[in-house]
Amino acid sequence: xxxxxxxxxxxxxxxxxxxxxxxxxxFSMSCPTKAVPIYFSYQGAGVVLPSGxxxxxxxxxxxxxxxxxxxxxxxxxxLRVVDGTGNTLFTTTTPFKGxxxxxxxxxxxxxxxxxxxxxxxxxxxxxxxxxxxxxxHTCVWLFGQHPTQTGCVQAPSDVxxxxxxxxxDQFDPFTLASPYTTAENFCP
Length: 188
Description:
Blueprint: H1 2-18, E1 38-40, E2 47-49, E3 52-53, E4 74-82, E5 88-92, E6 102-103, E7 108-109, E8 113-123, E9 132-142, E10 153-154, E11 186-187
Parallel strand pairs: 3-9, 10-11
Antiparallel strand pairs: 1-2, 4-5, 4-8, 6-7, 8-9
C-alpha cells in the first residue's frame, strides 16, 4: 500500500511539472523590449547576429546570419526561426548562410514583423580555452519590401524602434562595433 501511495504522489508531481510544457500552453515570443544584436566573442574578434534584416533583394542586409571577421569563433551552431504563434519557419546548422526571410512553401517573403531566433551551439576555445556551449533566444525584425512603393523597405508602424535595431551594414566586420548608419531606405 505504501509503494502504491508513493507511486500516485510521484505521478501527480510529474503531471504537475509537465503541465506547463504541454501543447495547450500558449506560445510566448518572450522578446526583449529593445531589439539588440547577439555577440559571441570567446577567443578573438567574434561574430554577431544583427537585430534586423531586410530581405528585399537589394543586396543590403538581405539575409539574417551570423557574421564577422572571426568565423572560427563558432564551432557548431543551430539557428531556428519561430513566428509569433510558435511555428518553426526555418532551421539551419550553417548560421553563416542564414535565413533569407522566404516562405519556402509559397515562394514569397514573410511579412514585416518580429521573429524569435533560437540558437544552440559551441564556441571555439581555439586551444587556448575549453570550448563553450551557448543556448538562448532573441528576437529580430524582418522588414520586407514596401507593398505599394518601390525602392524602399516597409517601416514598422512604430518607427521609433528603428533607433534600436542594428543591421549588418552598420557593423565593422573587424571590431563588430556599429558606428555606421544603415543604407536602407524606409518608406512609411
